[in-house]
Amino acid sequence: MNDDCVFCKIIEGDLPSHKIYETDDLIAFLDAEPVSKGHALVVPKKHVETIHEAHDMDYMWNGIVKVSTAVKDAFNAEGVNVEQNNGEVAGQEVMHMHFHITPRYTGEEIEIEYDRTELKSGEKLAEEIRSEI
Amino acid sequence: MNDDCVFCKIIEGDLPSHKIYETDDLIAFLDAEPVSKGHALVVPKKHVETIHEAHDMDYMWNGIVKVSTAVKDAFNAEGVNVEQNNGEVAGQEVMHMHFHITPRYTGEEIEIEYDRTELKSGEKLAEEIRSEI
After folding, report:
1. ipTM score of the complex?
2. Taking the CB of residue B33, how many other CB atoms lie within 10 A of it?
3. Active-site residue identified among B18, B39, B52, B98
4. CB contact under 8 A, B18 and A71
5. Which of these, A80, B23, B78, B106, could form a disulfide with B86 (CB 3.0-4.6 Å)?
6. How far is Cα A132 from Cα B69, in angstroms, rounded to an integer?
7. Topology of domain A6-130, CATH
8. B79-109: b or e for each residue (b if 16 or more CB lie within 10 Å)?
9. What is the side-by-side strand order in the sheet with A26-30?
10. pLDDT above 80: residue A68
11. pLDDT attached to residue A43
12. How far apart are CA A7 and CA A3, in angstroms?
């Protein structure tokens, strides 16, 4: 519980939400500013800021799979995006780790212009990452 | 193993990749068309198309957390996006479930124009989703 955290307040029941799923460890509720019909968030009850602090939270998987499938089935969505942002530079707005579950509908595609490049020096980069694991 | 699947071929070693992490159940390697330095994919060895078939794959969590943290640490990224797309309408290109792990760097933000709206009829929507869980 972090007194300044809006998600902690929702978890405690001190702020309202439209809850769709809850276990001992996590809660899922509708995003208050949805980008599509059924846009939901899956949030651990324990306050951690980013996924880098979440090594012991594999219970999140079940919540993500269940909620992704439920929003798809509830509204016959053709697709679902699962997205989790860490850090302001990555678009994180609430500093309590959360997964966006966003149903997608034909005709309502969002355009994301990724500037994809060809991989260069891949083995050198891979070695730098492997050395951190 | 799906004979037509490029990720199954990478997993089998029939196509090259820059591998960064591997367990009995999953593999992580660099994206061949990175959107940022260190852009990696975490992929289950079992061929499933979407997250909706992945109820028994909570081993993915550990891979996602480990790789997200390693790419951040390897290149001193200020943030990381974790993203998983289901269905063509959601931007899925390879029909074998995978998580994009994309480090973000200050000055290299990507602009995503989400058309956020105010939630309406939230409790009705929540009830429709709850009935699917």
Report:
1. 0.93
2. 13
3. B98
4. no
5. A80
6. 8
7. HIT family, subunit A (3.30.428)
8. bbbbbbbbbebbbbeebbbbbbbbbbbeeee
9. A19-22, A26-30, A40-44, A99-104, A79-86, B79-86, B99-104, B40-44, B26-30, B19-22
10. yes
11. 98
12. 10
Q: What does the DSSP 8-state code read for residue B55?
A: T
CB contact under 8 A, B81 and A85: yes
User: Do residues B108 and A2 lie in contact, with contact meaning Cβ atoms separated by under 8 Å?
Assistant: no
pLDDT at B109: 66
Least confident range of A46-55, A109-118, B58-67: A109-118
- Which residues of chain A make contact with B90, given a CB cutoff of 8 A? 78-81, 102, 104
Buried-state track A77-102, b at ≥16 Cβ within 10 A, e below 16: bbbbbbbbbbbebbbbeebbbbbbbb
Residue whose token pair is 């998983």: B84
Domain map (residue ranges) of chain A: 6-130
